[in-house]
Amino acid sequence: MQDLAESLSLAIALVLSGDADLIEIVALSLRVSLSATMLACVLGLPLGALVAIGRFPGRGAVLVAMNALMGLPPVVVGLLVYLHLSRSGPLGFLGLLYTPTAMIIAQTILITPIVAALARQALEDLHSEYAEQFRSLCLTRMQTVGALLWDGRFTLLTVGLAGFGRAVAEVGAVIIVGGNIDHLTRVMTTAIALETSKGELALALALGIVLLALSFAVNAGVQGLRVSAAARGAHV
């Protein structure tokens, strides 16, 4: 217990002092996860909206696939991205393996289905409320999608935050395609795994504290958006 208490004390000191290695790891984690979240929203939100308003043969199968893909095993995604980006893979000529870009690609693949499925559910409920009004205005499908995305923006912000929370906590895929290279691809989750295996608990605990703080911040952000939207009378 004394060793644990000492490690915790050192971890708090690292956080409060703004340790350079700690800041570098946290900054890379945020850059990778925020980039992946933005890409996932660009891809997933319109996809979710199109499925929400669409009525087509096989829609049930699409919904099953979207919901199933929310549980994609991270290590499988990491393996598939690795195979495509490795020198013998079809995209090996790009030289992206063991770079932050590869990690962004892996995280984007992981969280896009989450964003799309959550957005689909929220926007389908919204569309059912406004369907008659949209028909009376003779809106095109893309105009309907745009209107839904705007009117449901508060809900979609919470969807984006949920995607970011999933991305920043990811370890399996990013360690496969990033390699956990010091000063290049080492993010919070992979650094925690490495430092724990080495018995260096101070940095691992410091990163864990930051990761927990981010988790609380994301949840507080979601709750704040819900309260704000409710106060404005918007859809949540």
From TrEMBL:
It is a multi-pass membrane protein. The chain crosses the membrane at residues 30-53, 60-85, 97-119, 156-181, 201-222. GO terms for cellular component: plasma membrane. It is found in: Cell membrane. It comes from the Bacteria. The keyword Ribonucleoprotein does not apply. Keywords: Membrane, Transmembrane, Transmembrane helix, Transport. GO terms for biological process: transmembrane transport. Residues 26-222 form the ABC transmembrane type-1 domain. Its main location: membrane. Belongs to the binding-protein-dependent transport system permease family. PANTHER family: PERMEASE COMPONENT OF TUNGSTATE ABC TRANSPORTER (PTHR43632). This is Tungstate uptake system permease protein TupB. It comes from Palleronia abyssalis.
